[in-house]
Specification:
single chain, 271 residues, alpha/beta, 11 helices, 42% helix, globular
Length: 271
């Protein structure tokens, strides 16, 4: 997979699908890389020119020293699509990736076609909780973060029935560069869009997981209720819903991007 040498950052990315198709950018969650979208890539690239990338500090992208900010991460996306000659695009982000989407909708709305915000919130956690996690990384390393990750990311039943998949994901978390993870924590910690999400005018789908302890369904309802005309879908999953309820996730996103609706229902649909 290629790299883009952008101002102040080197981004690892994967670009697939026919050039004549509309572009769709997928943005990963904290502690993961572009491989988290492997289940969605085959069906998505049939309808879209699909761009996946490793957020700065993650995967094979370069690791500038922290802190990072969500507007900075959004600027990386714009620099990347510009380097690839992509003008307008759909954007789908999970967790911090969703925050990046909100920032793009505010910073460069003329570039976005539609927006999908997954397992995310206008504000995630507290200053204290993020500072505690950052200190844990500094003192105990990524192994301790990986140890506590399953309970946040997946339901107990999924953990029990998909042990190999969960184990592979957690090994990736454990091997992540601590400075990149801390940078991402800083970005999430310092982002608060509660007062401005009502200004988003991009057609938006919000996806939440019923069993998500990190960004509960109430956070998704807040976004759907405050973004004008937003659609809402709720999946039987915890935080990483695109993996745990992958078939439903894929169907909901494709239905929205192709047709402007969701399987669960219309605007503010509740499931």
């Amino acid at each position: 997979m290629p790299f883009a040498d952008l101002p102040n950052i080197r981004i690892h990315y994967a670009l697939s699908g026919d050039r004549s198709l509309p572009a769709l950018v997928l943005s990963n969650s904290l502690g993961t890389n572009l491989s988290m979208w492997d289940l969605q890539a085959p069906p998505f690239e049939k309808s879209f020119r699909l761009l996946r990338y490793d957020m700065r500090g993650h995967g094979q992208s370069s690791v500038p020293p922290p802190p990072y900010s969500v507007p900075e991460l959004a600027a990386d996306v714009l620099s990347l699509v510009d380097s690839l000659g992509i003008d307008r695009f759909h954007f789908c982000g999970i967790s911090v990736g969703g925050m990046i989407g909100m920032s793009l909708a505010r910073k460069a709305p003329e570039r976005l076609e539609k927006l999908v915000l997954c397992s995310t919130a206008a504000k995630i956690g507290t200053l204290e909780s993020w500072n505690t996690r950052i200190e844990t990384v500094r003192t105990q390393g990524m192994k301790e973060i990986a140890r506590t990750t399953p309970a946040r990311w997946f339901t107990p039943s999924f953990q029990a029935n998909s042990r190999d998949l969960v184990s592979a994901i957690l090994k990736a978390v454990e091997s992540m560069n601590p400075e990149g993870y801390i940078g991402g924590c800083c970005a999430v910690r310092d982002f608060d869009a509660r007062a401005i999400v009502s200004d988003i005018r991009i057609p938006t789908l919000v996806i939440s997981g019923t069993h998500d302890p990190a960004t509960p369904a109430s956070d998704g309802h807040f976004l759907a209720d405050h973004i004008p005309g937003a659609h809402y879908a709720e999946l039987h999953a915890a935080h990483i819903s695109n993996i745990e309820d992958s078939a439903r996730f894929t169907s909901e996103v494709l239905s929205f991007l192709r047709n402007g609706n969701v399987i669960a229902g219309g605007s503010h649909g509740r499931t």
